[in-house]
Amino acid sequence: MARWIAEWHPDDRSFWESTGRRVARRNLVLSIVAEHLGFTVWTLWSIVAAKMGAYAFSTDQLFWLVALPNLIGSVLRVPYTFGPARFGGANFTVVSALLLVIPTVLLGVAVSDPGTPYWVFLAIAALAGVGGGNFASSMANITYFYPSSKQGLALGLNAAGGNIGVSSVQLVMPLVIGAFGLAAAGWFWIPLVVPAAAGAWFLMDNLTSAKASPRAQLAVAGRAQTWVMSFLYVGTFGSFIGYSTAFPLLAKSLFPSSPWATVAFVGPLVGSLVRPVGGWLADRKGGAPVTLWNFAAMGAGVALLWPASASGAFWLFFLAFQTLFLTAGIGNGSTYRMIPAIFQAKALADLGSGEEAALRGKREASAAVGIISAVGALGGFLINRAFGMSFAATGGPATALVAFGAFYVACFALTWWCYVRTVGVSRVSSLAYARV
Asked: Whole-angstrom Cα distance, residue 378 to residue 230?
């Protein structure tokens, strides 16, 4: 049974070495497992929609099925952020894991009936959004377990473990569907989700120090930095989840005879694995400079993808897309590293050094993560809808790609204005002199 820990002082070196490290590591491992499964269910429709050839749905309708989980998942990230602080991190992990059973069972039932109407598939796809909320609750919970000096690596590992769920679902599901039929895409996850929930119940811990009211946590919504970082996170994580879920259907639509199902997992895997690299670069070079030039690289990636998508050469298209996955992954790490640093800097400026300032910084960063990750996840919805509308209007993705390029230009300009430009002889730094 999940227990409550009353005394938790990770920034106390002796406590961390004697007790904290072992407990934090155990909770991190189980959190990664649960979050990974959340991502798989959240992005499951990226493969399911591309495999629904037996249904007479248009390309735009199929992109709706891929986009809707992203929309619902982004909205759910806000209440999910407050779940660990209200009910306990372990308790909420159990509940959020078990909720994944609902959309997967319904999917298995729905695709077993060839007469299932489109609106039913829309409803089931929307329910898959519960998997998207898991990221916010998992990250908010793990923030409390680690000392400030070790949060970057811990959060990077937690996030990467979840992000890899996109790749694993795109690697495994085509094989499962090919062997056992489309219904297996739903039933496959049940024997994985239930043990994960049981593991969280018996082996994870709740922290009393993490208790906070939603009203207190929502105070960060009044900070300008919360919304600046939300916009930038649309450009990084929103791009990652949007391109990850759009690639299978986009590749099938443009190159029907290509081996898209065999290689769909590569891009999300690349983006997930380089996410910690983005955090590492931010630690060494500063989050703002890394983020700034990464947006420039993302704009260049879109410029490469445009002619590649019209070339008729699948492998050229595939390689061009990998530049976007690579840069989105690096940007995920660099922008996410900026968030706790911003709120920790503000807490230290207000309260000085000490455990009270460290705890306030963690609470505010935890709440900000929920809002920022929620807004950022909207990029997954917007990218898929942009592709869907572009196909409906022009029969191809060019219009959507122009919009993406313009957005990355805006992200570059905002990053420079808020965090990189010099004012007189002093540099405005998101990591040390955050203007909140």
From this structure: 10
Spatial contact of 177 and 184, defined as CB atoms under 8 Å apart: yes
Q: How far apart are CA 397 and CA 402, in angstroms?
A: 9
Rg of the chain over Cα atoms, rounded to whole angstroms, equals 21
- Determine contact, residues 52/182, Cβ cutoff 8 Å: yes
Stretches in the chain below the pLDDT threshold 50: 427-436
CA-CA-CA-CA dihedral for 81, 94, 75, 215, to nearest 10: -30
∠ at Cα 125 (66, 123), nearest 5°?
135
Dihedrals φ, ψ of 111, to 5°? -75, -10
For residue 303, how many other CB atoms are within 10 A of its CB? 15
- Contact criterion met (CB below 8 Å) for 396 and 310: yes
**Which H or E element spans position 35?**
helix 21-42
Domains and CATH numbers, the chain: 3-427 (1.20.1250.20)
Could you give the C-alpha distances from 393 to 64, 71, 122, 256, 387, in angstroms and in order?
Answer: 15, 22, 22, 20, 10
Among 344, 277, 336, which Cα is nearest to 136's?
336
The tens digit of pLDDT for each residue in 390-400 reads 999 999 999 99
In terms of Cα–Cα distance, which of 28, 358, 325, 354 is closest to 204? 28
* pLDDT tens, position by position, 322-365: 999 999 999 998 888 788 777 777 777 776 666 677 677 777 77
Cα–Cα distance, 158 to 151 (Å, whole number): 10
User: Cα angle at 299 between 295 and 300, to 5 degrees?
Assistant: 115
